[in-house]
Write a structure and sequence with these properties.
single chain, Rossmann fold, 9-stranded mixed β-sheet, 20% strand, globular
């Protein structure tokens, strides 16, 4: 009699979406995402670490690469997994800010208004650029994701009326960041009516424009101003329905989770930095039901 074939152990997911209303998973975004099933989330709203602007002192952190190309490659791999885990009608809302070349400097001094700006490393000036050049990070990422298969549907200007002052005297103070809308498929879920805005006279509704005026909001304990719930809410309203599952692979202090709670959506986050994971737990209290380690 032939020996029975070995029975493979079932591959259990890292967390059970049906048993828990919300999760925070500590770990590397790429590794955690690779453990999840296809078509798990309806929407992803996130703001990954910007390149060359912060040093969190965490091994394998994204944003501390020595080259822009390496940064783009890492983000492309992460968002390739995000695309796989989205439903076919799912969307990605991606917030990114830009940066300038270091001009050959290898460190950055502290700033009294923003101590988190201090860094003991600076990446070298990317090939083809010059000292003081604006790098164009958001668009480089957008084009990389577009080339990898995403549909690039909109570039939204996040205008910050209360932007941080800059002491520069040879260019305007930067008062905006980008919020890109990507879709997994040519046709996707987008509830335009839920985010219509009043005209200047306030007499009728119109389709939401591509410039959003939203103040930044500091959160106690965060190293820098987090992207505010008011920026996240329209993304969730347009990209999801009540009860949908939302992903934030760069969870930070938990802004997306907070916005989801307000709108009746379920949020799942991944965060590499233990300090930020603890901050999110304190911020969300009992709403963060379980923390896993990966």
């Amino acid at each position: 009699m032939a020996a029975p074939l070995p029975v493979e152990a079932p591959q259990l997911p890292l967390f059970d979406l049906e048993q828990h209303e919300g999760e925070l998973i500590e770990g590397d975004a790429l590794s955690v995402l690779q453990s999840l099933d296809d078509a798990t989330f309806r929407c992803c709203v996130t703001s990954p670490p910007y390149w060359g602007l912060r040093d969190y002192g965490i091994a394998s952190q994204i944003g501390a690469e020595q080259s822009v190309d390496e940064y783009l490659e890492k983000l492309t791999r992460v968002f390739r997994e995000v695309r796989r885990t989205l439903t076919d009608d799912g969307t990605l809302w991606l917030n990114l800010g830009d940066s300038y070349t270091s001009g050959g400097r290898t460190w950055r001094a502290t700033d009294a208004k923003n101590p988190a700006r201090a860094m003991d490393y600076r990446p070298p000036t990317p090939a083809g650029l010059k000292p003081k050049d604006l790098i164009g990070i958001p668009w480089r990422v957008a084009f990389a994701l577009q080339a990898d298969g995403w549909y690039l549907r909109a570039d939204i200007i996040w205008h910050k009326p209360n932007c941080q002052p800059e002491s520069v005297k040879d260019r305007p103070t930067r008062a905006h960041e980008y919020l890109f809308l990507f879709s997994k498929s040519e046709r996707y879920y987008y509830d335009y009516a839920s985010i219509r805005e009043l005209t200047n006279g306030g007499t009728r509704l119109r389709n939401k424009r591509s410039v959003w005026n939203v103040n930044t909001e500091a959160f106690p304990g965060a190293h820098s101003a987090t992207f505010p719930p008011a920026l996240v809410m329209p993304c969730l309203q347009a990209g999801t329905e009540p009860g949908d599952i939302v992903l934030d692979p760069f969870f930070g202090s938990g802004t997306v989770r907070e916005a989801c709670l307000r709108l009746g959506r379920r949020a799942y986050g991944i965060e590499l930095n233990p300090e930020y994971a603890n901050l999110a737990r304190r911020r969300l209290g009992g709403q963060c039901l379980r923390t896993g380690a990966f």
